[in-house]
Specification:
The chain is of the alpha/beta class and 115 residues long. The protein is 46% helix and 14% strand. The longest helix has 17 residues.
Amino acid sequence: LVISQQRSGTRFIASLIDKHSHIRCGHEELFLRIHKQPLERLIEKGDLNEYMDQIHLSLELLSHLKGENVDDNLSHVGFEVMYSQGVTAFHIDLMDRLKKENFKIIHLIRKNKLL
């Protein structure tokens, strides 16, 4: 997962990662569009299990999409997720769960603030 706030280079990093022939990295739109219910409602409920189910569903769908540089030996899939898309809401519990499930995380941090 590529985690960050908006306007911090996640799309650029995800595009670079997606160029590898064994890796598929999607954009945040994939994560936002597949939810059974609006993401805001899921976050309000505070149900980390359901949130993780949505992450796994996104990864499963992404693993079946073929990009121009992806071959049949796909070994990793991932996507961007922004702080506002549940990362800050579930914060430590989410990070613990991702670590327990052996997720690899790229965390981008902006040093300058947008005006």
